[in-house]
Automatic annotation (TrEMBL):
Record-given protein name: Lipid-A-disaccharide synthase
Natural source organism: Geopseudomonas guangdongensis
Catalytic activity: a lipid X + a UDP-2-N,3-O-bis[(3R)-3-hydroxyacyl]-alpha-D-glucosamine = a lipid A disaccharide + UDP + H(+)
Gene (name only): lpxB
InterPro entries linked to this entry: Glyco_trans_19
Pathway entry: Bacterial outer membrane biogenesis; LPS lipid A biosynthesis
Amino acid sequence: MTRPLKVALVAGEASGDILGAGLMQAIKARHPDAQFIGVGGPRMQAEGLDSYFPMERLAVMGLVEVLGRLPELLGRRRRLIRTLIAERPDVFVGIDAPDFNLGVELKLRQAGIRTVHYVSPSVWAWRQKRVLKIRRACDLMLTLFPFEARFYEEQQVPVCFVGHPLADAIPLAADRAAARAALGLAEEGALVALLPGSRGGEVERLGSLFLDAAARLRALRGGVSFVLPCASAERRAQLEVMLAGRELPLKLVDGRSHEVLAACDAVLIASGTATLEALLFKRPMVVAYRVAPLTYRILKRLVKSPYISLPNLLAGRFLVPELIQEAATPDALAEAVSPLLDDGQVQTEGFDAIHRALRRGASERAAEAVLQLLEPT
């Protein structure tokens, strides 16, 4: 090329920021003078992204919850499309955030800009007609998981399964003793990690529930203790309020969720990306899921998949317990976690097989696929 490669990227939350930073690193290895514009978080900005506005303005969860932010989101998307059409990047990569990014991709592709969507939306589970928009909007879909690539192949959408960067980064075997020592936790004794989510709404719905479940589990197994990683100072303050008046052997940790997962024996966890991290650390888990009642009623009618958690989707079977909405009670959660402290081998063997299947050098494969798209045909 006679000028530096110009890549536009948009990520909407922390997991996308991680993926975007890895992709940028891999592109820079091939094009050291590449320029990056768009929207991203601190990791992508550290790699050289000129972010047009804070990534957090795109972070919203749930069907009902998004309505209050809709005017702002639509306005930001219109302005972003105009800016990117004027900038004429060589390629646009929308990282997750499908409700935002697919609209951007459609307009940019119509304007003659190559478009890639990185991280498949859950079209195989619900709103399957979205695949028609995806086919119109993007020149290439990059998937993290093999079952997603099979779906797109059947729907005649250009696709590349790249694997997952976390599977590359997390070792096949984690050192539990070293992680406990690093966190200042007792070397012996059963330890359960509580991961009620990273967003305020998630912690509001699941934080007290998880603490109640921990109390029930403590009644079942007197020697168990708990550790909970706080995603931010705000989440820590929120959880400290919930902990007030409780006598529970629990340690709050600022960040360091990977060390917490390496240190523990079992996990009580909110459905989401963190379940993949627990899987990769080979820690048996129980998954809980609660959303606003109206959101749940809508999702229940739309979702086609029998599973909600990534471990079960990847295994194609109920490998881990899923307790949803009213079924997620303190007693039910405690009774599901308790046997995993004695024998979680069925889960961990399944997790190991999945880890090896996802360990593909994802960022490098994604960069290669993006750059191949730009080669003359």
